[in-house]
Amino acid sequence: MSLRGVAIATTTWCVAALAVTGVVAGGANASARLPDSRPSWATPTALRAPVPDSDIVHARVYLPWRDTAGLAALTRAVSTPGTASFGRYLTPEQFRDRFSPTTHDVAAVTDWLRGAGLRVVDVPSDRQYVAVEGTAGDATAAFDTTLSTYDAFGRIMRAPTRAPAVPAALAGKVSAVVGLDDGAEAVPAVRPPNESPNGTTPAKVADPGVGFRSGTPCSTSWGEKTVTLPTAVDGSTTKPLAPCGYTPAQVRGLYGLGSGDTGAGQTVAFVGANASPTIVSDVTQYSRLHNLPDPQISQIVPPGIYQHPTTPKNDPGAFFGEQTLDAEAIHTTAPAAKILYVASSNANQDFDRSVKAIVDKHLAPIISISYGFGGESVPQGFVNSLNGIFAQAVATGIGIFVSSGDNGDEQTTLGTTSVDFYANTPNVTAVGGTSAAIVAGAGGSVFGSGAKPVAAAPTSSTAGGGIYGIDDPANPVNQPGWTRAFEVGWQTGFTTATGTLAPLPSGAAPPTSTRYAFTGSLDPAGPSFSGGGGGGISKVFPQPSYQKGITDGARDGSTGATGTTGRALPDISALADPNTGFLVGQTQKFTDGSYYDEYRIGGTSLAAPLIAGMAAVANQKAGRDLGFLNPRIYAAYQQKTASLYDVDEADLNSTAEFGTTPSVFRVNFTDTESAAGGRQFSLRTLELPTQSLQSTRGYDTATGVGSPRDSSFLTVLGSVTPLPYTPDRKSPKVP
């Protein structure tokens, strides 16, 4: 998810391993256990109390694909130039005929589950799983285990006390049971803007999320406003005020997207928790305020998914911001593409069902996912099952783009460095994050002298953004003519500033004044890590062949592991830092009512949909669906194409004005709505030098191969010869 207030030439695809222990008991009661369906964090020392029998449980019982060797061969063939099958992807019907579990096996599993007292919610048309729900008591009896709570990752979570079991007659027909634990709630890889999902069933539509506005003063472009500090930091007392939030025109300028780069004829799908009832009106109003065409957006609820719009751990409404961000980010980089939102009912717990709905029916050739698990401590059965869906996507020509995470190397949250699941899977494109300085025109100054003027007054409407007229379509910030001054890896440091902020010259008011003075002090302890793009080396998945010879020297923070030992991520990066973030518009709940407003937001859940939208432009330019892009991305990198921007802090010229390390001075409203409730100040250091993830020349675990320099990269993706594809069918080992 996103941050605002804190603001594969070869892929390895892993067969859903049939890790089944020996048959236990005897006769009609004989059963086979599934050890890969129990999380490693459910230890005896963490055990707390039994789960009440009346609690509701949602689970998926996965069946293995048929002919996994054949599926590996197919994914290789459709991705390897020179083969007769190159680019000839299977249709959903062809995939089902060759690889889906048999109807006989699915019927056997379904009959058993119903007989055990569970309600069958749905079975996808490719028959990969049977989704069920029931009480904890029903699940305990059905899977011959008990459900208890555990204290892990600072949260109380549910898990089975021993590996679930299936009848011995179904051994080999069931690969995993997913959903008995709620580990998806443990440590989210990406952070929510304000925690909350909502549904669209008529009787259950939640209030909008709590209102948030970007603190002012803020800059309309990089360096448009500055603040003078009482003491020098990194060699300078002058710092830029954080941007109010970059507009679509500015972001399109950052990546050199021209008027014809629209994603026309494409569909980009994304998944999220539940569904905002105002998403269409919000994105439409946003588009009209910022000179984008009206969106072609729809949202669907796959069969059985939308049963429970609320859960005890999630307030319906908090995920509205995530859904809005994804839609408006996709619409920014692919304004003519259709946008499809597929809802998940149970927060983080059943996103696999949403992804499956898109892949199973090939609803879109591109999928953006802004969610994930913090770290890799996920039951292997779930890893294998979800990666099986991703392999299906590769075989059927779908490209999936996943946020790499918002916790940097995870040292702060997990106590050890780690990459995050789903992004670690080699059948997806992991999208990391950058901090960006966007200025006016070719050669615009990093220090704001090239910044364009802004409207002279805020909007008069209460419900319209109102940040110095940024929501005015005539404002230059909503017109073409913007460009990149620099990008660095997103690894932000936070230093509290205590004091007051006043405009210079004395008495001048925004927006005519662009200079401010801060009187007070900065925390002498200096910056502490506050958020950054995920990256590193997987301990679960081996290095995919499309990374061989490219990520070999990449390092995984403090562990010293290199890319030769595991799958390195991210693959590519885009704007993510909420301190140089993106302006979004959304209906929110303020103290004076609920209405549309605008605010700055960030996170790799901004980066992923931005890149997904650019993938739609790449398909548009190529005149065909390019499918899984990693073999093409790394081939383009290997050819040293100038169309990639090497995100490297060394690209910055040290200056006396802003200092040797880029940073921004940020203002937050204490009550999140207005200055009337007070203001909070901080200095945000971009690419904190003490973090293990740092951008360097070439591939690095902070930003991958870099970011698109301009739209020529999207042309290159369609013309470059992808690297060879040789899938590894061995299952990963989950720690």
UniProtKB/TrEMBL annotation:
Annotated region described as Disordered, given as residue ranges: 189-210, 531-569, 692-711
Gene3D superfamilies recorded: Peptidase S8/S53 domain
Biological processes per GO annotation: proteolysis
Record bears the keyword Cell inner membrane: no
SUPFAM superfamilies: Protease propeptides/inhibitors, Subtilisin-like
Cofactor: Ca(2+)
An MF annotation (GO) of this entry: tripeptidyl-peptidase activity
Annotated protein name in UniProt: S53 family peptidase
Species, as recorded: Williamsia herbipolensis
